[in-house]
Amino acid sequence: MAWIVDVPALERRLADATRFQPLVEVVKAPVAAPLTVVCEGRASKTRSELGVEFDVTPYGQTAIATRLRCERPHLQIARQWFTPDGSILAFLPLDGAEGNSVAVVWSTPQEQLPQWLECDDTTFAQKLQEISEGSLGTLELIAPRASWPLQQARARRWCGAMPGSALTGRQEWWALAGDAAHTVHPLAGQGLNMGLGDVAALARILGERPGWRSVGDMKLLRQYERERKSALMPLGATMDALQQLFSRKESPLQALRNWGMRGFEMSGPIKEWVARQAMGLQPPDRH
Ligand SMILES: Cc1cc2nc3c(=O)[nH]c(=O)nc-3n(C[C@H](O)[C@H](O)[C@H](O)COP(=O)(O)OP(=O)(O)OC[C@H]3O[C@@H](n4cnc5c(N)ncnc54)[C@H](O)[C@@H]3O)c2cc1C
């Protein structure tokens, strides 16, 4: 399985890693630069200020995230359940192999949201215990509930000139990366990989540029946009198809999706294809 890491721990490691890098300077506010990479997440304010249209397709589902303490250890296994009403419940193991707490992501139909946000902690934990078939024993809620509407979204433009920069005589450019450029359903856990794929592609394209080209070169930025859009298109279509399958209530489709998801979990090559597609990596050399 993938690593499940708390954001503050990741941020501490990133701060440590950059502290003694002479080429990295942490700034408190935006500075003038030939290229500004906007990676502010899906609700990016800068993207809106730049007037970039963000095409959003709501899935009609909301993710509720929280944490649980479980009676039994999770044994470092990530678990998912698909219910007849189209909900998807995921338990992601925390605190190492001996741990007994899990991060919860519960994608639930929009209309059920008020009920599950407003009910008391015990009722909520009991509902999750019921969906998870008691596989981790009695569950106890240990964090507040937070919620996000689930959507597939894609920015129409991923790069451009900073407004007004031409007037100063120093042309400045911007590019979008990560959730500021695209979001998908968390179903297959590929959101972060997609952002890492953007970073890798942009770094490679800029790193390979001839010395006379600036990092804010529109031709290179357009190359980045084209490359990532075409790499992510099949993945977006796959996630969309899976989401459609999971949201249907007909029993043959339920049987098919449970069979399909077990197959997906057991299928090393398909899972690997999805992750590599998200990161924009070439297929591994098998020889
Ligand atoms: C419920 C849920 C479950 C998910 N589960 C998974 C999963 O299992 N696996 C997976 O890979 N992905 C998952 N994702 C998706 C994943 O969280 C995102 O794809 C990923 O976090 C995107 O990273 P990002 O850096 O682009 O944006 P974000 O993680 O949103 O980070 C953007 C950061 O920029 C900061 N920021 C915003 N504006 C400014 C500014 N002006 N100046 C400075 N900082 C600013 C924000 O505070 C934030 O810290 C899930 C998403 C949801 C909603």
Provide an overview of this structure.
- There is one protein chain.
- By secondary structure, the protein is α+β, with helices and mostly antiparallel strands.
- The protein folds into two domains: 32-53 and 169-279, FAD/NAD(P)-binding domain; 60-150, D-Amino Acid Oxidase, Chain A, domain 2 (2-Layer Sandwich), CATH 3.30.9.
- It has eight helices and ten strands.
- Strands 2, 3, 4, 5, 6, 7 and 10 form a seven-stranded antiparallel β-sheet that branches.
- Strand 3 and strand 4 form a beta hairpin.
- It starts with 6 loop residues before the first helix and ends in an 8-residue tail after the last helix.
- The model has no long low-confidence stretch (mean pLDDT 86).
- Bound molecules: flavin-adenine dinucleotide.
- Residues 39-41, 45, 63, 65, 105, 148, 178-180, 186, 189-193, 195 line the site of flavin-adenine dinucleotide.
- Flavin-adenine dinucleotide is lined by residues 39-41, 45, 63, 65, 105, 148, 178-180, 186, 189-193, 195.
Q: Give the number of helices.
A: 8
Q: Hetero groups bound?
A: flavin-adenine dinucleotide
Q: What would the CATH topology of the largest domain be? A: FAD/NAD(P)-binding domain
Q: Strand tally, please?
A: 10
Q: Rg from C-alpha positions?
A: 21 Å
Mean pLDDT: 86
State the end-to-end CA separation. 25 Å
Q: What is the C-level CATH assignment of the largest domain?
A: Alpha Beta
- Proportion in helices: 25-40%
Under the CATH scheme, which architecture of the largest domain would be assigned? Answer: 3-Layer(bba) Sandwich
State the domain count: 2
What series of H and E elements makes up the topology?
Answer: HEHEEEEHHEEEEEHHHH
CATH level 4 superfamily of the largest domain = FAD/NAD(P)-binding domain
Basic shape: elongated
Q: How would you classify the helix and strand content by structural class?
A: alpha+beta
Strand content: 15-25%
Q: The biggest beta sheet, please?
A: 7 strands, antiparallel
- Ranges where pLDDT stays below 50 over 5 or more residues in a row are none
Pfam families: FAD_binding_3 (PF01494)
Domain FAD-binding: 31-230
Protein name: 2-octaprenylphenol hydroxylase
Keywords: Oxidoreductase
